[in-house]
Amino acid sequence: MHVLVLGGTTEARRLAASLAARPGVRVTTSLAGRVTRPAALEGDVRVGGFGGVDGLAGWLREQEVDAVVDATHPFAATMSEHAVRAAAATGVPSVMLRRPGWRPEPGDRWHDAASLADAAALLPALGRRIFLTTGRLGLAAFADERRLPDLAELHFLVRSVEAPDPPLPRHTEVLLDRGPYTVEGETALLRDHRIDVLVTKDSGGAATAAKLTAARALAVPVVIVRRPPPPEGATVLPDEAGVLSHLEHGLGLGRGFGSGLGFGLDSGRDLT
Questions:
Q1: What angle do CA 244, 246, 249 make, to 5 degrees?
Q2: Is the bond into 167 cis (omega within 30 degrees of 0)?
Q3: What is the pLDDT of residues 120-176, one digit of tens each?
Q4: Surface-to-core class of residue 236, CB atoms within 10 Å of its CB (0-12 exposed, 13-18 middle, 19+ buried)
């Protein structure tokens, strides 16, 4: 049984480890290649794009893939769309693993944005010192002074795993770091840099949620870029346990995937 995991997230890494530990199951994790030193993965690993829907469909056929799990980042909309279409074209069962998004709590001062460009438009009215945690791609939206001249007056602290791609905002300090982060560390960072506004994508999960707790405690407003909807026709599940159960039962892969092979979840093993 060959399972392709479209990875790049913590959930994808844990899922690959669980799959690779099962007898009779081969797992291949595909990474986009945007991070030069990704965390170690169990099973086979491939890096780079497939060449669109047709390229992915061809790969599924050539590699005799039995199931596809889209465990990419919640904002990887193009890859998710390609996964659904390629799976449908080849008749390969597919499922999407999407951790739940964040939800505001009492004391939060959240401002929703539909895109990075919309987030940039909100900033001049909210503050002058911005902590930007949307990743190293797409920063051009915050450097577009022709559309938003007031951006030239803002100061940005940009945090990313690797150096961001230009263009960058006029006044930018880059902080290279990788989560998970602590509430204490995030609180100190917001204070030390005198941050007025936090900008983040609605990635969900615990690894980077500490910044939201810190912002709440310091009454710092947060601009939240909402995630795109899943592709039409996608089966979406919130955690690894649900995906494993779906692979075994919901997709009818039990005979070769779990039944008689001990594929059920290990007692006491935390997969959330």
A1: 110
A2: yes
A3: 999 999 999 999 999 998 999 999 999 999 999 999 999 998 999 899 999 999 999
A4: middle
